[in-house]
Amino acid sequence: MSSAAPNPNPSRLPRVAPRVAQRALQRARLTVVPRRRTAVRAPRVPFVMLISALLLGGVIGLLLFNTSMQQASFRETALSHQARDLDAQQEALQLQLDALRDPQRIARLAQQMGMIVPTGAAAILDYQTGRIRGARTPAEGPGLPLHQPPAQQAAGWKPPAPTVTVTPTTTQRAKKTGSGVPPKNR
To answer: Which of 22, 58, 167, 175 has the least CB density, counted as fewest CB within 10 Å?
Structure first.
């Protein structure tokens, strides 16, 4: 019979070597060893407070960062809506401008104002022969006004009176002071 651990029961020890078995039994008993004391122990309260402060600061920092990111997102959304509205407004104004610049509209308004005089029959000039083919008829109509009418002022508006400032000359200053010698320039 072979066993790696000593048998703690002395009655079951082999009879061959009772002394050797006794020594093995004494070695096998465990005893409690007192702890060694360290020279200086760091207090735990400041360390726990430091870790708690770091965790609290991290959480507050994350909350502030999240809040600022949400505000930036709201601002970006508002600016994109404003840009979209301004694009639509610019497109509407461009359409208005195109309608105002329409050549047919301009011709119609010019005709209503008497600026366009319809012509008669067209005459064709032949450059090789120098002859004119067709009947030449002058355009008839009120014609273009040579002088533009004066602009009308708004009711109740009067232009400010011009102000003139006069600086006295050196001889006028000398006459005021009563001496015949003009004052020296400083």
So the answer is: 167
